[in-house]
Amino acid sequence: MLSGVSHTDRRSVGHTQRGTPELRDIREECWQRARATVGDQEFDTAFDRGTVEIPASFLTLAVAGRLPHEE
Q1: Residue range(s) defining the domain that contains residue 35
Q2: Which among 9, 27, 28, 50 is least buried, having the fewest CB atoms inside 10 angstroms?
Q3: Is residue 71 situated within a structural domain?
């Protein structure tokens, strides 16, 4: 979910790579590893769910260790 939230946050400033284009390869490698671990469908579901979250609220929960979990 955090990747989806981050993507939405970057998109909100007008560009999905704004400020971090040098991290694109690292981000894509991370996504590939996550997909290999949980599967494409679960990754896509979590990513999509993250894109509809409010970034500041979600990040507050992440820092507090209170992220929502899929049941």
Answers
A1: 2-63
A2: 28
A3: no
φ, ψ (nearest 5 deg) of residue 69: -120, 145
How far does Cα 27 stand from its chain's mean position? 10
In a domain, 47, yes or no: yes
Q: What's the pTM value of the predicted model, to 2 decimals? A: 0.61
**Residue 3, number of CB atoms within 10 A of its CB:** 16
pLDDT tens sequence across 18-39 = 556 777 888 889 889 999 999 9
Is residue 19 in a domain? Answer: yes
**pLDDT of 13 strictly over 50:** yes
User: Does residue 71 surpass a pLDDT of 60?
Assistant: no
- Name, in order, each residue with C-beta under 8 angstroms of 67's C-beta and a sequence gap of 6 or more: 1, 2, 58, 61
DSSP 8-state secondary structure symbol assigned to residue 48: H
